[in-house]
Specification:
Layout (H helix, E strand, L loop, with lengths): L31 H5 L15 E7 L5 E7 L1 H4 L4 E5 L9 E2 L6 E2 L5 E2 L5 E7 L2 H9 L2 E6 L6 H5 L23 E9 L2 H5 L4 E9 L11 E6 L5 E5 L4 H12 L6 E5 L15 H11 L3 E4 L2 H7 L6 E9 L5 E11 L7 H10 L10 E8 L14 H19 L3 H8 L19 H10 L32 E14 L8 E11 L2 E7 L9 H13 L3 E4 L17 H28 L5 H4 L2 E4 L2 E4 L4 E4 H5 L4 E8 L18 E14 L4 E12 L6 H20 L33 E4 L16 H18 L5 E2 L3 H5 L2
Parallel strand pairs: 1-14, 10-29, 12-13, 16-17, 20-21, 27-28
Antiparallel strand pairs: 1-7, 2-6, 2-8, 3-7, 4-5, 9-17, 10-15, 11-12, 11-14, 15-16, 18-26, 19-20, 19-25, 22-23, 23-24, 26-27
InterPro entries: Ald_Oxase/Xan_DH_a/b (IPR000674), Ald_Oxase/Xan_DH_a/b_sf (IPR036856), Ald_Oxase/xanthine_DH-like (IPR016208), AldOxase/xan_DH_MoCoBD1 (IPR008274), AldOxase/xan_DH_MoCoBD2 (IPR046867), AldOxase/xan_DH_Mopterin-bd_sf (IPR037165)
Protein name: Molybdopterin cofactor-binding domain-containing protein
Pfam families: Ald_Xan_dh_C, MoCoBD_1, MoCoBD_2
Length: 795
């Protein structure tokens, strides 16, 4: 019998259930089991026949002229295929996300400790390392720029003598990368109304992203003279625009594919080994693999900006804020990276989630000879939150008010005008988040006590067995923060999604193809959930992320669910309309609902909004595939005015609050964080399990910088003193407390599904909450992160 489906008669269909695994469900991650069993292939696991290994020789000094480079001994080493310096680079010698000031390999001078100077390719990684060690470099050391005083002195050494970036024209000194003032109202006049004024000087240490998967990648030369690059990164297309000019290749000949990423947190947004591996591969004609060890990783990516912050706040005796003045100085290190944007964030979010009509704000980023700094989770808002929350506690104490009630009295809400003049046009439940964390039951006192004696794991010092409870004091602290979501200040922020719907083996299958980097945040899960919801199919294939599809932007700024999720939703909607057009053409004459009803795709069928099934997707599509690739943008933003700082600079805000409960051994200066409860507005929980994971992860990173994490740079030499996980400590399972999470779902009407970026906000308020709790336990002021034992004991 002839197939009659194309003539307009649909096969009989029955109403079915909606597809499982859509938005709002805690679907499991497809890569989860592989990761916890050790079977997931990370970028460092990649292999290619006949591949070589790349190795970098880095500078041993922080600021020096390069007098000479002798590679002869390295070239004579058996197994070495190439030794390169800047003279061997094929094209552009500099790269950079915003401004190309970072050398691929140093030439003329080095500007920071650990800067790449030479490059080796060999047939074994140990051979490459030994050959690199044989390269002889003669340096003539130069004076160092290490802080604000040395950077801005009238006779200061210039880190970059001839700046050509667009920020250079509006800064007062060549060692200032960018300056952003914000002036609103009249802070000086408002200060006269204040019954109390508090000031504070705060220092925020340099934090490392400390991702567990080191920088790595594989570059394979192609027959067309191009390169195929498999790499762990956060932003494929940004990498592409920087790599291609340095290779002297058109972008279409640099084909990039995401490899497995072992964490990022901002540290993979800049280039690391991508250009270096590709240069070696093109030079040798062989695949080249590069994998940093942990020591190299500390030099191979940017870090969080250390900061000095000066704040002044005033309040009336009834607890209303009158004004705020602040100056924030961020150390950007030797190269620009994303320092201008971090400065903009720090300035625009420096007031915190509070109503303050009269402000005088200045944020600057400096060039120094310290390690380069750039993107890290929280992006300028973390440093500011640490300072303004300490100020809120000082004001509350001076007024004799409860610190939570004081914050609630001044909390912003929807409709509040930011210091930049931008209205907060979506829910801002700051007071409610504070209420929720305060209302939580307190963890029991003296949890270490049992009939069998003290459980030292629950005490400060843990298994080092330093105390059995003597000298241990409990403290409780609160904090709340505000973070922007997405790219800001007029940046053309968009994402692209290619969606294909077809019948495979008798079932409708959707394929989602984006360039979004999966760095551990769970994007691959979210993308499939959106496709199932929008297209009504069960089977969704996630195509590997690569540059054969349009840009998805960076996996940073809490933007991917909003932006790439929005792009997938948009492209799915266009695919759905195309499918319905096909259905109307085939079956429209057999049921009036095809012409008049609101039609949906659910459970593999075309259904009316009343739930009546009209046709299966298999019948509608048959052998036809529908594929659409489309860009999607959020509403535009504006640059901040360079004099007043006014402008609608951000697309969305996120809010989180924490309550920290700590126990402090006041005799030894040891801290045990017992609980770090969080309440956060997430807009819409696309995957509730992932939401909780993101909040707990961000909270833990904030805990780390509160009590243990800091890259220590010698002020005399500008050399990193602790580039290892032996000396740079991060929280382990034993350090991480219980993290109860309470999330609200107050939809942002401007965002897809009402979502709000999740991953960054908890990193802000966890740090000052822990510091507030330690202050509460000890009575000490504690204006620096991280808090170390000597800060508590005075030794």
């Amino acid at each position: 019998m002839a197939d009659t489906r194309t003539t307009g008669i649909p096969a009989k269909v029955t109403q079915g259930a909606k597809s499982k695994g859509g938005i709002g469900e805690s679907t499991l991650r497809p890569d989860g089991t592989l990761k916890v069993t050790g079977e997931f292939a990370y970028s460092s696991d990649m292999w290619h026949e006949d591949m070589l290994w790349g190795q970098i020789l880095r500078s041993t000094v922080a600021h020096a002229e390069i007098v000479s480079i002798d590679t002869s001994e390295a070239l004579a080493t058996a197994g070495v295929h190439a030794v390169l310096t800047h003279e061997d680079l094929p094209a552009a010698k500099n790269y950079g996300m915003e401004y190309q000031d970072t050398p691929v390999l140093a030439y003329g001078k080095v500007r920071h400790h650990g800067e790449p100077v030479a490059l080796v390719a060999a047939d074994h990684p140990e051979t490459a390392r030994r050959a690199a060690a044989k390269i002889r470099i003669e340096y003539r050391e130069l004076p160092l720029v290490t802080d604000e005083a040395s950077a801005l002195a009238p006779d200061a050494i210039l880190v970059h003598e001839d700046r050509g970036d667009h920020h250079a024209g509006h800064v007062t000194h060549p060692n200032i990368v960018h300056r952003q003032p914000i002036i609103r109202g009249n802070a000086a006049e408002a200060a006269k109304r204040a019954d109390v004024i508090v000031t504070g000087e705060y220092t925020f240490g340099m934090q490392d992203q400390a991702f567990l998967g080191p920088e790595s990648g594989l570059a394979v030369p192609a027959e067309d003279g191009g390169i195929d690059l498999y790499v762990a990164t956060q932003w494929l297309h940004s990498d592409l625009k920087q790599i291609a000019p340095c290779l002297g290749l058109p972008e279409e000949k640099v084909r990039m594919t995401m490899a497995g990423v072992g964490g990022a947190f901002g540290g993979r947004e800049d280039i690391s080994m991508q250009i270096l591996a590709s240069v070696l591969a093109l030079r040798t004609g062989k695949p080249v693999k590069m994998v940093y060890n942990r020591y190299e990783s500390f030099f191979g990516h940017v870090h969080r900006h250390p900061a000095k912050l000066h704040y002044e706040h005033g309040a009336t005796k009834d607890g209303k804020l009158t004004h705020m003045k602040c100056k924030i100085v961020l150390d950007g290190g030797a190269y620009m990276s994303s320092t201008p944007s971090v400065v903009g964030n720090a300035a625009s979010l420096s007031v915190g989630p509070y109503v303050v009509d009269d402000v005088e704000i200045e944020a600057v980023g400096l060039y120094t000879n310290n390690p380069p700094c750039g993107a890290m989770r929280g992006f300028g808002a973390v440093q500011a939150c640490f300072a303004y929350e300490a100020q809120m506690d000082k004001l509350a104490a001076k007024l004799g008010m409860d610190p939570v009630e004081f914050r609630q009295k001044n909390a912003m809400e929807q409709g509040t005008i930011m210091p930049t003049g931008q209205p907060v046009d979506s829910p801002a439940p700051v007071a409610e988040l504070l209420r929720r964390v305060k209302a939580r039951p307190m963890p029991p006192e003296r949890q270490w006590e049992s009939s069998e004696g003290a459980d030292v794991r629950a005490l400060p010092g843990g298994l080092s067995n330093t105390t059995h409870g003597e000298g241990v004091v409990r403290g409780v602290g609160y904090a709340v923060g505000i973070k922007n979501v997405g790219f800001s200040e007029g940046f053309d922020d968009y994402s692209t999604a290619k969606i294909r719907l077809e019948v495979i083996n008798g079932e409708a299958v959707a394929t989602v193809h984006t360039a979004a980097a999966e760095v551990g945040q769970g994007g691959v899960t979210i993308h499939a959930q959106i496709a199932r919801t929008e297209l009504g199919v069960q089977q969704v294939t996630i195509h590997p992320a690569d540059t054969q599809v349009g840009s998805a932007g960076s996996t940073s700024a809490g933007r991917q669910t909003y932006m790439t999720g929005g792009a997938i939703k948009n492209s799915c909607s266009l695919v759905r309309e195309k499918v319905l057009e096909i259905g109307r053409r085939k079956f429209g004459s057999y049921h009036p609902a095809w012409a008049s009803a609101e039609l949906l795709l659910e459970g593999g069928k075309v259904v009316t909004d009343g739930g009546e099934a009209l046709a299966s997707l298999v019948d509608v599509l048959e052998d036809e595939a529908v594929e659409i690739e489309e860009e999607w943008r959020h509403r535009p933003t504006q640059p901040f005015d360079l004099v007043t700082g006014q402008g609608n600079g951000h697309v969305q805000y996120a809010f989180a609050a924490h309550r920290a409960v700590v126990e402090v051994d006041t005799e030894l200066g040891l801290v045990k964080v017992i609980e770090l409860a969080c309440a956060q507005d997430v807009g819409k929980a696309i995957n509730p399990l992932s939401v909780i994971g993101q909040i707990q992860g961000g909270t833990t990173q904030g805990l780390g910088v509160a009590v243990m994490e800091e890259i220590i740079v010698d002020p005399k030499t500008a050399k990193v003193k602790n580039p290892s996980f032996t000396d740079y400590l991060i929280p382990t399972l034993l350090d991480t407390p219980t993290i109860p999470v309470d999330y609200l779902e107050l939809a942002d009407p401007n965002a897809p599904y009402g979502v709000r970026g999740i991953g960054e906000a908890p990193t802000l308020s966890s740090t000052p909450a822990v510091l507030a709790a330690i202050r509460n336990a000890t009575g000490l002021e504690l204006n620096k992160t991280p808090v170390r034992p000597e800060h508590l004991t005075g030794t």
